[in-house]
Amino acid sequence: MKPMEVVGSSKMAENHVIVALGLLVCGWSWVEGTHGEYLIGVGSYDMTGPAADVNMMGYANLEQNTAGIHFRLRARTFIVGESPDGPRFVFVNLDACMASQLLTIKLLQRLNSRFGNLYSEENVAISGTHTHGGPGGYMQYLVYSVTSLGFVKQSFDVIADAIEQSIIQAHNNLKPASIYLNIGEVKDAGINRSPSAYLQNPANERARYPFNVDTEMTLLRFVDGESGESVGAFTWFATHGTSMSNKNKLITGDNKGVAARLFEDWFASQNTSSTTNSLVQAYSRGTSSASAHIQVDDHCKRKHTQANTNTQARNDCRAMAGYALVVASTTLQSHCQWVSPYHTHEVSPLSLTLGHTGSTQD
Fold first, then answer.
1. Mutual orientation of helices 254-270 and 306-318 as an angle, nearest 10°?
2. Which pLDDT tens digit goes with each residue over 174-229?
3. Hey, which residues are catalytic here?
4. Which of 110, 242, 261, 342 is least crowded, fewest Cβ atoms below 10 Å from its Cβ?
5. Binding residue per annotation — 240?
6. Nearest CA to 19 among 193, 255, 288?
7. How far apart are alpha carbons 136 and 139 in whole angstroms?
8. Residue 43, Cβ neighbours under 10 Å: how many?
Protein backbone atom coordinates (compact mmCIF):
# COMPACT_ATOMS: atom_id res chain seq x y z
CA MET A 1 0.00 0.00 0.00
CA LYS A 2 1.34 3.42 -0.96
CA PRO A 3 0.61 6.02 1.72
CA MET A 4 -1.09 9.23 0.62
CA GLU A 5 0.02 12.64 1.83
CA VAL A 6 -2.38 15.49 1.19
CA VAL A 7 -1.59 19.14 1.76
CA GLY A 8 -3.93 22.08 1.18
CA SER A 9 -3.13 24.50 -1.65
CA SER A 10 -1.36 27.78 -0.91
CA LYS A 11 -4.61 29.68 -1.37
CA MET A 12 -6.35 27.40 1.09
CA ALA A 13 -3.50 27.72 3.55
CA GLU A 14 -3.56 31.49 3.23
CA ASN A 15 -7.24 31.59 4.08
CA HIS A 16 -6.90 28.91 6.74
CA VAL A 17 -9.37 26.76 4.82
CA ILE A 18 -9.28 23.26 6.22
CA VAL A 19 -9.09 20.49 3.67
CA ALA A 20 -9.26 16.76 4.07
CA LEU A 21 -12.08 14.65 5.40
CA GLY A 22 -12.59 12.94 2.08
CA LEU A 23 -9.25 13.24 0.40
CA LEU A 24 -8.39 9.57 0.63
CA VAL A 25 -11.61 8.14 -0.77
CA CYS A 26 -10.23 6.46 -3.80
CA GLY A 27 -10.97 4.83 -7.14
CA TRP A 28 -14.67 5.41 -7.74
CA SER A 29 -14.46 3.94 -11.22
CA TRP A 30 -15.47 0.37 -12.00
CA VAL A 31 -13.23 -2.23 -10.34
CA GLU A 32 -12.32 -5.29 -12.37
CA GLY A 33 -11.85 -8.70 -10.81
CA THR A 34 -13.75 -8.14 -7.58
CA HIS A 35 -14.96 -11.40 -6.06
CA GLY A 36 -16.68 -10.52 -2.81
CA GLU A 37 -14.86 -11.90 0.21
CA TYR A 38 -17.56 -10.80 2.66
CA LEU A 39 -21.27 -10.18 2.92
CA ILE A 40 -21.70 -6.41 3.14
CA GLY A 41 -24.76 -4.21 3.42
CA VAL A 42 -25.15 -0.45 3.79
CA GLY A 43 -28.08 1.67 4.91
CA SER A 44 -28.99 5.32 5.46
CA TYR A 45 -32.03 6.90 7.13
CA ASP A 46 -33.16 10.43 7.98
CA MET A 47 -32.83 11.47 11.64
CA THR A 48 -33.22 15.26 11.41
CA GLY A 49 -35.54 15.64 14.39
CA PRO A 50 -37.42 18.68 15.73
CA ALA A 51 -36.38 21.80 13.80
CA ALA A 52 -37.88 24.35 16.18
CA ASP A 53 -37.57 25.21 19.87
CA VAL A 54 -35.32 22.31 20.95
CA ASN A 55 -31.93 23.07 22.46
CA MET A 56 -28.95 21.85 20.46
CA MET A 57 -26.56 19.24 21.79
CA GLY A 58 -22.90 20.25 22.02
CA TYR A 59 -22.27 23.84 23.05
CA ALA A 60 -24.41 23.77 26.21
CA ASN A 61 -25.86 27.15 25.24
CA LEU A 62 -29.34 27.74 26.66
CA GLU A 63 -30.09 30.22 23.88
CA GLN A 64 -29.12 27.89 21.01
CA ASN A 65 -32.48 26.37 20.09
CA THR A 66 -33.30 24.86 16.70
CA ALA A 67 -34.93 27.27 14.25
CA GLY A 68 -34.67 25.70 10.80
CA ILE A 69 -32.49 23.30 8.81
CA HIS A 70 -29.12 23.80 7.14
CA PHE A 71 -28.65 20.15 6.11
CA ARG A 72 -30.77 17.18 7.12
CA LEU A 73 -29.19 14.64 9.47
CA ARG A 74 -28.80 10.94 8.74
CA ALA A 75 -27.85 7.65 10.36
CA ARG A 76 -25.49 5.70 8.09
CA THR A 77 -24.76 2.01 8.68
CA PHE A 78 -22.60 -0.76 7.33
CA ILE A 79 -22.80 -4.45 8.19
CA VAL A 80 -19.99 -6.90 7.45
CA GLY A 81 -20.53 -10.65 7.74
CA GLU A 82 -18.50 -13.75 6.97
CA SER A 83 -21.45 -15.74 5.67
CA PRO A 84 -25.26 -15.87 6.01
CA ASP A 85 -24.86 -17.80 9.26
CA GLY A 86 -21.44 -16.59 10.36
CA PRO A 87 -20.26 -13.72 12.57
CA ARG A 88 -21.09 -10.18 11.57
CA PHE A 89 -20.39 -6.64 12.72
CA VAL A 90 -22.52 -3.47 12.61
CA PHE A 91 -21.20 0.10 12.61
CA VAL A 92 -23.56 3.08 12.72
CA ASN A 93 -22.39 6.65 12.14
CA LEU A 94 -24.81 9.34 13.36
CA ASP A 95 -25.02 12.98 12.36
CA ALA A 96 -25.22 13.71 16.09
CA CYS A 97 -22.96 14.92 18.85
CA MET A 98 -22.72 11.37 20.16
CA ALA A 99 -24.87 8.34 20.83
CA SER A 100 -26.13 7.52 24.31
CA GLN A 101 -26.37 4.41 26.43
CA LEU A 102 -30.14 4.82 26.47
CA LEU A 103 -30.25 4.82 22.65
CA THR A 104 -28.12 1.68 22.56
CA ILE A 105 -30.32 -0.11 25.08
CA LYS A 106 -33.50 0.76 23.18
CA LEU A 107 -31.96 -0.20 19.84
CA LEU A 108 -30.75 -3.60 21.06
CA GLN A 109 -34.22 -4.34 22.43
CA ARG A 110 -35.75 -3.58 19.04
CA LEU A 111 -33.14 -5.60 17.15
CA ASN A 112 -33.63 -8.54 19.49
CA SER A 113 -37.37 -8.58 18.86
CA ARG A 114 -36.79 -8.48 15.10
CA PHE A 115 -33.63 -10.57 14.58
CA GLY A 116 -33.24 -12.58 17.77
CA ASN A 117 -29.64 -12.81 19.02
CA LEU A 118 -28.10 -11.93 15.65
CA TYR A 119 -27.24 -8.37 16.76
CA SER A 120 -26.22 -7.53 20.31
CA GLU A 121 -23.90 -5.34 22.36
CA GLU A 122 -21.10 -7.68 21.24
CA ASN A 123 -21.29 -6.70 17.56
CA VAL A 124 -23.10 -3.35 17.29
CA ALA A 125 -21.16 -0.07 17.55
CA ILE A 126 -22.80 3.38 17.37
CA SER A 127 -20.74 6.53 16.86
CA GLY A 128 -21.55 10.23 16.46
CA THR A 129 -19.82 12.70 14.14
CA HIS A 130 -19.83 15.14 17.07
CA THR A 131 -21.73 17.86 15.27
CA HIS A 132 -22.80 20.58 17.68
CA GLY A 133 -25.79 21.42 15.49
CA GLY A 134 -28.30 18.66 16.18
CA PRO A 135 -31.33 18.58 18.49
CA GLY A 136 -30.51 17.58 22.07
CA GLY A 137 -32.43 16.02 24.91
CA TYR A 138 -31.79 12.37 24.02
CA MET A 139 -29.18 11.61 26.71
CA GLN A 140 -29.92 9.85 29.97
CA TYR A 141 -27.41 11.75 32.10
CA LEU A 142 -28.39 14.93 33.92
CA VAL A 143 -25.37 17.01 32.94
CA TYR A 144 -26.26 16.62 29.25
CA SER A 145 -29.94 17.39 29.83
CA VAL A 146 -29.59 20.68 31.70
CA THR A 147 -29.58 22.99 28.67
CA SER A 148 -32.30 20.98 26.91
CA LEU A 149 -34.40 21.41 30.06
CA GLY A 150 -34.80 17.68 30.42
CA PHE A 151 -35.45 14.67 28.22
CA VAL A 152 -36.92 15.40 24.76
CA LYS A 153 -38.80 12.31 23.59
CA GLN A 154 -39.15 13.56 20.02
CA SER A 155 -35.38 13.92 19.68
CA PHE A 156 -34.79 10.49 21.17
CA ASP A 157 -37.42 8.69 19.08
CA VAL A 158 -36.29 10.04 15.72
CA ILE A 159 -32.67 8.99 16.36
CA ALA A 160 -33.65 5.55 17.66
CA ASP A 161 -35.93 5.00 14.65
CA ALA A 162 -33.24 6.11 12.20
CA ILE A 163 -30.61 3.80 13.67
CA GLU A 164 -33.01 0.86 13.58
CA GLN A 165 -34.17 1.55 10.02
CA SER A 166 -30.64 2.05 8.68
CA ILE A 167 -29.62 -1.30 10.19
CA ILE A 168 -32.68 -2.98 8.68
CA GLN A 169 -31.75 -1.53 5.28
CA ALA A 170 -28.17 -2.76 5.57
CA HIS A 171 -29.35 -6.19 6.75
CA ASN A 172 -31.73 -6.54 3.82
CA ASN A 173 -29.06 -5.39 1.35
CA LEU A 174 -26.36 -7.87 2.36
CA LYS A 175 -24.52 -9.17 -0.71
CA PRO A 176 -21.04 -10.44 -1.64
CA ALA A 177 -18.58 -7.55 -1.62
CA SER A 178 -14.97 -6.65 -0.96
CA ILE A 179 -13.40 -4.25 1.52
CA TYR A 180 -10.60 -1.88 0.56
CA LEU A 181 -8.46 -0.27 3.25
CA ASN A 182 -6.28 2.80 3.19
CA ILE A 183 -4.49 4.63 5.98
CA GLY A 184 -2.80 7.89 5.09
CA GLU A 185 -1.73 11.25 6.40
CA VAL A 186 -3.76 14.40 5.79
CA LYS A 187 -2.06 17.66 6.71
CA ASP A 188 -3.48 21.17 7.13
CA ALA A 189 -6.85 19.76 8.10
CA GLY A 190 -7.14 20.96 11.67
CA ILE A 191 -5.52 22.82 14.52
CA ASN A 192 -5.05 21.99 18.17
CA ARG A 193 -7.77 23.67 20.23
CA SER A 194 -5.44 24.19 23.17
CA PRO A 195 -1.76 24.11 22.16
CA SER A 196 -0.68 25.51 25.52
CA ALA A 197 -2.35 22.58 27.29
CA TYR A 198 -0.75 20.14 24.85
CA LEU A 199 2.67 21.46 25.87
CA GLN A 200 1.97 20.27 29.41
CA ASN A 201 2.30 16.67 28.19
CA PRO A 202 5.67 15.03 28.91
CA ALA A 203 8.34 15.93 26.37
CA ASN A 204 9.09 12.29 25.59
CA GLU A 205 5.44 11.73 24.76
CA ARG A 206 5.23 14.79 22.49
CA ALA A 207 8.40 13.66 20.74
CA ARG A 208 6.58 10.58 19.47
CA TYR A 209 4.38 12.68 17.18
CA PRO A 210 5.33 15.17 14.44
CA PHE A 211 2.26 17.36 15.05
CA ASN A 212 0.07 18.39 17.97
CA VAL A 213 -3.01 16.95 16.23
CA ASP A 214 -3.74 13.52 14.77
CA THR A 215 -3.23 13.73 10.99
CA GLU A 216 -4.00 10.09 10.17
CA MET A 217 -7.09 9.14 8.19
CA THR A 218 -8.46 5.60 7.88
CA LEU A 219 -10.70 4.61 4.99
CA LEU A 220 -12.86 1.52 4.46
CA ARG A 221 -14.40 1.28 1.01
CA PHE A 222 -16.99 -1.35 0.07
CA VAL A 223 -17.18 -2.68 -3.50
CA ASP A 224 -20.01 -4.82 -4.87
CA GLY A 225 -18.69 -8.27 -5.78
CA GLU A 226 -20.85 -8.57 -8.89
CA SER A 227 -20.90 -5.10 -10.43
CA GLY A 228 -17.52 -3.88 -9.18
CA GLU A 229 -19.13 -0.60 -8.14
CA SER A 230 -18.64 1.22 -4.86
CA VAL A 231 -21.60 0.89 -2.52
CA GLY A 232 -20.17 2.60 0.54
CA ALA A 233 -17.18 4.21 2.18
CA PHE A 234 -16.51 5.11 5.81
CA THR A 235 -13.60 7.27 6.94
CA TRP A 236 -12.27 8.14 10.39
CA PHE A 237 -10.49 11.45 10.90
CA ALA A 238 -9.88 13.80 13.82
CA THR A 239 -11.86 17.01 13.37
CA HIS A 240 -14.26 18.63 15.82
CA GLY A 241 -17.83 19.31 14.73
CA THR A 242 -17.64 23.03 15.41
CA SER A 243 -17.48 24.73 12.01
CA MET A 244 -20.85 26.21 12.95
CA SER A 245 -20.76 28.41 16.04
CA ASN A 246 -22.93 28.44 19.14
CA LYS A 247 -24.88 31.26 17.48
CA ASN A 248 -26.11 28.89 14.79
CA LYS A 249 -29.72 27.74 15.13
CA LEU A 250 -30.06 25.70 11.95
CA ILE A 251 -29.88 21.91 12.25
CA THR A 252 -26.64 20.81 10.61
CA GLY A 253 -24.32 17.83 10.37
CA ASP A 254 -21.47 20.37 10.41
CA ASN A 255 -18.31 19.62 8.42
CA LYS A 256 -18.60 15.82 8.43
CA GLY A 257 -22.34 15.69 7.77
CA VAL A 258 -22.19 18.24 4.97
CA ALA A 259 -19.19 16.51 3.38
CA ALA A 260 -21.07 13.18 3.39
CA ARG A 261 -24.15 14.73 1.78
CA LEU A 262 -22.15 16.58 -0.88
CA PHE A 263 -20.14 13.49 -1.77
CA GLU A 264 -23.22 11.28 -2.00
CA ASP A 265 -24.88 13.87 -4.25
CA TRP A 266 -21.76 14.08 -6.42
CA PHE A 267 -21.57 10.29 -6.73
CA ALA A 268 -25.24 10.12 -7.72
CA SER A 269 -24.68 12.76 -10.41
CA GLN A 270 -21.84 10.70 -11.89
CA ASN A 271 -23.86 7.49 -11.96
CA THR A 272 -27.21 8.07 -13.63
CA SER A 273 -27.89 4.46 -14.63
CA SER A 274 -31.05 3.07 -13.05
CA THR A 275 -29.10 -0.08 -12.17
CA THR A 276 -26.42 1.78 -10.25
CA ASN A 277 -26.43 1.29 -6.52
CA SER A 278 -26.66 4.41 -4.37
CA LEU A 279 -23.60 5.15 -2.27
CA VAL A 280 -23.52 5.50 1.51
CA GLN A 281 -20.61 7.77 2.43
CA ALA A 282 -19.89 8.43 6.10
CA TYR A 283 -17.29 10.66 7.71
CA SER A 284 -16.76 9.28 11.19
CA ARG A 285 -15.11 10.87 14.17
CA GLY A 286 -11.49 10.08 14.95
CA THR A 287 -9.45 11.25 17.93
CA SER A 288 -10.86 14.74 17.61
CA SER A 289 -11.08 15.94 21.21
CA ALA A 290 -8.21 18.40 20.77
CA SER A 291 -8.58 19.01 17.03
CA ALA A 292 -10.66 21.88 15.64
CA HIS A 293 -11.89 22.23 12.06
CA ILE A 294 -12.17 26.03 11.77
CA GLN A 295 -11.27 29.18 9.91
CA VAL A 296 -9.90 32.29 11.55
CA ASP A 297 -9.85 35.91 10.47
CA ASP A 298 -6.97 38.40 10.56
CA HIS A 299 -7.53 38.97 14.27
CA CYS A 300 -7.43 35.24 15.05
CA LYS A 301 -11.14 35.26 15.83
CA ARG A 302 -13.03 32.15 14.85
CA LYS A 303 -15.40 32.32 11.93
CA HIS A 304 -18.20 29.77 12.17
CA THR A 305 -20.71 30.23 9.38
CA GLN A 306 -22.77 28.24 6.90
CA ALA A 307 -20.47 29.43 4.11
CA ASN A 308 -17.43 28.27 6.10
CA THR A 309 -18.96 24.86 6.71
CA ASN A 310 -20.08 24.42 3.11
CA THR A 311 -16.74 25.60 1.68
CA GLN A 312 -14.78 23.25 3.91
CA ALA A 313 -17.06 20.35 3.04
CA ARG A 314 -16.78 21.02 -0.70
CA ASN A 315 -13.00 21.07 -0.41
CA ASP A 316 -13.24 17.81 1.49
CA CYS A 317 -15.08 16.23 -1.43
CA ARG A 318 -13.18 17.53 -4.45
CA ALA A 319 -9.70 15.99 -4.34
CA MET A 320 -10.61 12.33 -4.18
CA ALA A 321 -7.39 10.38 -4.77
CA GLY A 322 -5.27 7.68 -3.18
CA TYR A 323 -4.40 4.03 -3.03
CA ALA A 324 -6.10 1.11 -1.33
CA LEU A 325 -5.50 -2.57 -0.74
CA VAL A 326 -8.21 -5.18 -0.67
CA VAL A 327 -8.73 -6.74 2.76
CA ALA A 328 -8.27 -10.48 2.37
CA SER A 329 -11.01 -12.70 3.73
CA THR A 330 -10.31 -13.52 7.34
CA THR A 331 -12.12 -14.47 10.51
CA LEU A 332 -14.43 -11.68 11.64
CA GLN A 333 -14.26 -10.83 15.34
CA SER A 334 -15.73 -8.10 17.52
CA HIS A 335 -15.33 -7.38 21.21
CA CYS A 336 -17.30 -5.42 23.77
CA GLN A 337 -15.75 -4.21 27.02
CA TRP A 338 -17.48 -2.50 29.91
CA VAL A 339 -15.47 -0.01 31.94
CA SER A 340 -16.06 -0.07 35.68
CA PRO A 341 -16.77 3.32 37.30
CA TYR A 342 -15.44 2.01 40.60
CA HIS A 343 -11.75 2.38 39.86
CA THR A 344 -9.44 3.26 42.71
CA HIS A 345 -8.05 6.19 40.70
CA GLU A 346 -11.40 7.62 39.71
CA VAL A 347 -11.42 11.41 39.52
CA SER A 348 -13.93 13.67 41.22
CA PRO A 349 -17.55 13.42 39.97
CA LEU A 350 -17.33 17.15 39.27
CA SER A 351 -14.73 16.53 36.56
CA LEU A 352 -17.33 15.42 34.02
CA THR A 353 -19.33 18.59 34.50
CA LEU A 354 -16.27 20.84 34.48
CA GLY A 355 -14.78 19.04 31.50
CA HIS A 356 -18.01 19.32 29.52
CA THR A 357 -18.37 23.00 30.36
CA GLY A 358 -14.76 23.75 29.51
CA SER A 359 -15.01 21.96 26.17
CA THR A 360 -17.90 24.13 24.97
CA GLN A 361 -15.78 27.23 24.44
CA ASP A 362 -15.44 26.65 20.67
1. 50
2. 999 999 888 887 777 778 888 888 899 999 999 999 988 888 888 888 999 888 88
3. 340
4. 342
5. yes
6. 255
7. 8
8. 25
